[in-house]
Specification:
By secondary structure, the protein is mainly α. It has 6 helices and no strands. The chain folds into 2 domains: 79 residues, no CATH class; 33 residues. One of its GO terms (cellular component) is plasma membrane.
Length: 113
């Protein structure tokens, strides 16, 4: 009986160490019926958003990689053209870099650096 409990605990430890890999593989596969059963752009968009959300919240992949999932999957599923995705990413990056100096000055003022 103790051997069985030790074997179960060993299996549990192995699964716990591989949890991120399991999430990365099983989440897209388990959600794949959504765009297959309903082949609309809305269903494909929902699939991409759910996969991205699970990756983001669970941190199964680095956050930067999770943020790039829509950039690759939207054109793959035909939700958006790659030029539209890259244009929105470029707009986000430019607004991020424009606001950065103002944020740094404000942080210096607040933290009295």
């Amino acid at each position: 009986m103790r051997l069985e409990a030790a074997a179960r605990m060993d299996l549990f430890r192995k699964l716990w160490r591989a949890r991120k890999l399991i999430l990365v593989v099983l989440i897209p596969l388990s959600l794949l019926p959504l765009p297959l059963i309903h082949p609309t752009s809305e269903a494909c968009c929902a699939y991409v958003l759910m996969v991205t959300a699970v990756y983001w919240v669970s941190e199964a992949v680095p956050l930067g990689a999770a943020a790039l999932v829509p950039a690759f999957l939207y054109p793959l599923f035909g939700v958006l053209k790659s030029s539209e995705v890259s244009a929105s990413e470029r707009h986000f990056q430019s607004s991020l870099t424009k606001n950065r100096p103002a944020e740094l000055v404000e942080m210096e003022n607040i933290w009295k650096l």
